[in-house]
Amino acid sequence: MTEDLKTIRELAEEFNVSKQAVRKRMTDEFRANYVETVHSNGVKTLVVTVAGYMLLKQHFSGGNADGKVASNVGGNDGNLDVASDSNKNDDEVSVLKILEQQLAVKDRQLENKDSQISQMQNLLDQQQRLALQDKKLLEEYKAEIKDLKSLNILAKDIEKEEPVQKEKKVENNKEVSRKQNKKWWHFGRRM
């Protein structure tokens, strides 16, 4: 195992308590936050992180210090209390440092999330602008198609009317020629 991670057995030996006492302190919340599973040689081993180690150390050192003070009846009780207080302060300082580090990590994670959110917002805005442009182009194309259809219909109508107009022109030409031929001075000709 690494120096940062400690097994339940190592913790029990260090704190001079049973493995059962260490397991009893490991609630579901504690396990979720401070316990990891390490695979080595095909065996899963539960290990406690440094922050979890500090919390367990604080708990067990408080209980052991009281026991040592009670068992040390004839000795110098004042020095032991001062030493245990300084140990507690050191432990609290180290726990605070760990918590500050965790807060710094969380702050960086939040900054990353903020940048990701702003990036996603920009992409969403861009997508909406493109969709709007596509919609405008589609409407323009529909209008052009409608214009082309109307022009096509007009062209077909003109083609239909052209033969009729040609026939009318031919008939008009014949009528004009007949009218021109029916003048009163043509006495000897027959028509």
SSE inventory with pairings:
Layout lengths: L5 E2 H8 L3 H7 L2 H7 E6 L2 E6 L1 H22 L5 H105 L10
Antiparallel strand pairs: 1-3, 2-3
Helix pairs in contact: 1-2, 4-5
GO molecular function, one term: DNA binding
Protein name: DNA-binding protein
Keywords: Coiled coil, DNA-binding
Descriptive account of the structure:
- This protein has a domain at 6-116.
- It has helices spanning 8-15, 19-25, 28-34, 50-71, 77-181; strands spanning 6-7, 35-40, 43-48.
- The radius of gyration is 50 Å and the shape is rod-shaped.
- The chain is mainly alpha-helical.
- The protein is built from five helices and three strands.
- The longest helix is centred in the C-terminal third of the chain and has 105 residues, at 77-181.
- Strand 2 (35-40) and strand 3 (43-48) form a beta hairpin.
- It is 78% helix and 7% strand.
- GO terms for molecular function: DNA binding.
- Keywords: Coiled coil, DNA-binding.
- This is DNA-binding protein.
> Uncertain segments of ≥5 residues (pLDDT<50)?
64-79
Distance between the termini: 131 Å
For the largest beta-sheet, the strand count, sense and barrel status come to: 3 strands, antiparallel
Given the structure, what is the number of helices? 5
Rg of Cα set: 50 Å
What strand order characterises the main sheet? 1-3-2
Order of helices and strands: EHHHEEHH
Number of DSSP strand runs: 3
Helical content class: over 70%
As a percent range, the share of strand residues is 5-15%
Chain-averaged pLDDT: 79
Shape: rod-shaped
Structural class: mainly alpha
